[in-house]
Amino acid sequence: MEATVSNTGTEGKVWGGGNKPLSASYGKMMMWFFILSDALTFSGFLAAYGFSRFKFIDSWPIADEVYNHFPGTHGDNPMYFVALMTFILIASSVTMVLAVDAGHHNDRKKTIFYMFLTIIGGAIFLGSQAWEWTNFIQGSYGALETEGGQILQFVDTKTTADDDKMYRVSVEDFATASHKERVQHEGKNGLWYVSEPALPTYSVQDVITGFNEHSTLAVRTQEIIPNVAALKASENPADVAKAERFEKMYINADHKGHKGILTRAESEKALKDAVTYVKGANLIHNEYGNRLFGDFFFFITGFHGFHVFSGVVINIIIFLNILLGTYDRRKNNYEMVEKVGLYWHFVDLVWVFVFTFFYLV
Amino acid sequence: MAHDHGHTEHKLAIFRGRLKFKSNVQKIWGVLIFLSIVTIVEVGLGIAKPSILVDNYFIGMKLLNWVFIVLTIVKAYYIAWDFMHLRDEKSSLRRAVVWTAVFLICYLIFILLQEGTYIEDVKANGFIKWNF
């Protein structure tokens, strides 16, 4: 380490840059400072997510129902894909730490090999994240949104003897898009200073018509069913009233922790409030539930993905430098590899927390 | 490589000295195996959702969520200590980085979650119509 630090004549002095209480080089210490501040930034985002989640604790989307895709399969596969992504990132962290170790032994060939694997791991992770985003943006079932931003999803209440689960129904399966009377108003075909967003595939009336034609359908709200039996047994009259409301409105009031499914009469009433059809997600609407849910997903996983992307770019630069022999000439045991390694592990560390708070908790 | 600048000296024991490795490379693989096991346990619990962990609460949160958070911190510890070599750094550097983050993050989380709970309470029990 000492090899690159010029002799400043301050050794043994307390002030003026003397003493090295932390025994770390300048570059490494600055990387730690950066990581600390970046960790606080991510904590701010995740704490804000926690704030919104506690604010809407009784209606927040259930992660298992949102992220349930796995490449090459159909149906409900919660969590496997993100678990795989976590594993890919941890594995690329391992190849990075092996590169650092090889660098410490001045083993250029091994350092090159492990840096290469790290870059590949990062690229695979980014690809996986793109796939995850695509599914999130495209959506799978579609829903109606009310004036107040509530999401109304649809389920089939018909169950069989050995399976009492009421499955989600895609709006496309029961609604028919009516004839489009109106073209989208764009700046180029009307008033140039006025435009409107893309028109939804179905009008609210199309969906309601389809709903009325299928008598087994019901609306699923965002409200999560509490422990109704415990509320009923409560001394507090407000709790008893709440339990009665749940039993009156929902046909699955005994399914604690599930999203409430309205009775047919209540469903028809709820549909009267709907103002627009939503499929998938963007920054304003999403079919999964609370609007903030989509925003936080895009913002936090996006910010993390941007870190991974920067990490891959920096890794490539360092990789090329190793090929050119830059760090052999510096004769400091490839310390630069260790410094970018710190950043790369930090990105992995953040993902561990994002994984927990977005997908597990 | 007669003189290695003291760079290759690593502390090779984890789990408070209960598990000792012969070389740094071996320790790296050992930590990978441990982190993978923890992740598999997390995913298994997330899919199984054992009712004893879901129905019981501790300070306003399901036990299952506490288990996830503790396991996450365990993973973070081994990533920082062994992959980021905090174990091999001077304790002063380690403390400057870790305690700063721990104190500030705990404070931030306390303030925001406390406030979120309060607003939820107003929404649920106050005279505000939000479902329309």
Automatic annotation (TrEMBL), chain A:
GO terms for biological process: aerobic electron transport chain. GO terms for molecular function: cytochrome-c oxidase activity. InterPro entries: Cyt_c/ubiquinol_Oxase_su3, Cyt_c_oxidase-like_su3, Cyt_c_oxidase_su3-like_sf, Cyt_c_oxidase_su3_a-hlx. Keywords: Cell membrane, Membrane, Transmembrane, Transmembrane helix. It is found in: Cell membrane. GO terms for cellular component: plasma membrane. Its main location: membrane. The keyword Chaperone does not apply. Pfam families: COX3 (PF00510). Residues 1-361 form the Heme-copper oxidase subunit III family profile domain. Belongs to the cytochrome c oxidase subunit 3 family. This is Cytochrome c oxidase subunit 3. It comes from Kordia periserrulae. The lineage of its organism: Bacteria, Pseudomonadati, Bacteroidota, Flavobacteriia, Flavobacteriales.
Automatic annotation (TrEMBL), chain B:
Pfam families: COX4_pro. InterPro entries: Cyt_c_oxidase_su4_prok. It comes from the Bacteria. Keywords: Cell membrane, Membrane, Transmembrane, Transmembrane helix. It is found in: Cell membrane. It is a multi-pass membrane protein. The chain crosses the membrane at residues 28-48, 63-84, 96-113. GO terms for cellular component: plasma membrane. This is Cytochrome c oxidase subunit IV. It comes from Kordia periserrulae.
